[in-house]
Amino acid sequence: MTVGEEEGDGGQPSSWNCDQTPNPEIEEHKIDVEISDRVRNWIGSVVKAKERRTACLSQNSWPSIPKVPHPLRGTNDFKKFYEPKVISIGPYHHGKPHLHSGQNIKPLFAQEFLAASQLRIEDVYKKIKSNLGAVRKCYDRRPTNKYDDETFAWMMLMDGCFILQFILSETKGEGEGEGEGEGEGEGEGEGEGDTKVLREHQICYVEDDLFLLENQLPFGVLQMIFEEGSLSMIDKIKEYVAARIRWPAERLISEIQLKEPAHLLDLLRSALLGGDKQQPEQEQASEQEEKQKAAADEDAYTNHTHGCWRMMKESFLSFQSLFQMMIRRRFGRSNKNQDTHSPSQGNNNNKWQSFRHIRELKAAGIHFQPSRTCFLTDISFESHFFYGYLKLPVLFIDDSTKPMFLNLVAYEMCPDAPDDYAVTSFLCFLNDLIDHPDDVKELRSKKILYNSLGSDDEVAQIFNEIGDGLIDFDVYEDVKDDIQKHYDKRMNTWIAQAYHDHCSSPWTIIAVIAAVLIILLTGIQTYFAIPGN
Known about the structure:
By secondary structure, this protein is mainly α.
């Protein structure tokens, strides 16, 4: 008996038997279906999808300027944080009624810049129009198709000259503006005159408008305008972006990279992140020196200690060493068992995080210090005996903070943006730390946050609203893991809590030392009072 016969006797379907004739019902289902031209086009779009994507990317010589992604467009405050208030840059918001007054002042700014740069407007216009194909590809097709080449080229010229002249006027210091040749004297003193067209509150709005995602101009257009001029605009642009971060320009300008940025918002993002994350050898050596000093410096807890405070703290630390030894002998076994079952131990892939905000970290003996730079990537954690230091970059909080970060997050969500999600991850990390106005107060007291809004509750609300719904890409995963390891050591928490409760000021330390001395002297007196001692 063949295998096929055995299967047939066993109740298997007849189609399994190779010796049986085909079932006519099955044959009916094998009839070929004719594929229409419409379906063939669909199939072709799938087969050639990768080729089209590659060709599209190769044709775009400049990075694209996308619109805000759809997940963010449905928010209630979309117009408040993503649309310009005074000046439209590019085609997305061009011609809107509330921006008409800003459109009227662009020719004045353009005249000022071209005169100061000794440029002929005809030459600049021809140069932009000759590269208009590459410029159009930077924007979405639908908003740009309604403008012919002449109108679009003129828009790029006016918007580019406005941006450059606005930057020039905002970065012009005292004593500048004196002519250095023909044409320079003509624009002398007019750097301030063009901004007088704008009131002070309008200037603040324009500064926000220049860093909105949908209000950008390709950086290549700016280069086409100023590269033939007599002004050194590269340094001026760096200085302006540095001032936007509100960090000393001389410390930041050298770090701002101008290697083919997409636009001003992309340049601002590079400045916030610090360009290359690898620090120079001198900075690394200096940082290592600081770590050694921090470990040996007994005054690190208060940052404002005096000579007498050092002496009292030395006495107290010697007592704490003895106290720690006693705790280890008494509770060491139970603590070991607890640590073994801690979610952050035994499984390195576990992302469980038990700490919630700054107040909890402070209770666990984790203190906060400003980083050496204002770069968002400059976050580190150092764990010591029973305390730790979390270093965070310095931030200046004002009315422009929320729209700036929201547009940076929107930019990182776009397909052609850098894929490191560094700003988004930083905001998620800060959202984890800040949950209450007291958390903001602690960061203010450590000179990490500078609040210009007036209330700590507003600052906490800003970061909670920005972080709501964001996806954390764990750029700072190593820092979080180090914090969690320190946080899971319960002995650190106990000692830190005792230190915080009883040794937070010189007077409490004096009281503790006096109590310890009384106990020791009483013990010694009792010992020698026993007969025979």
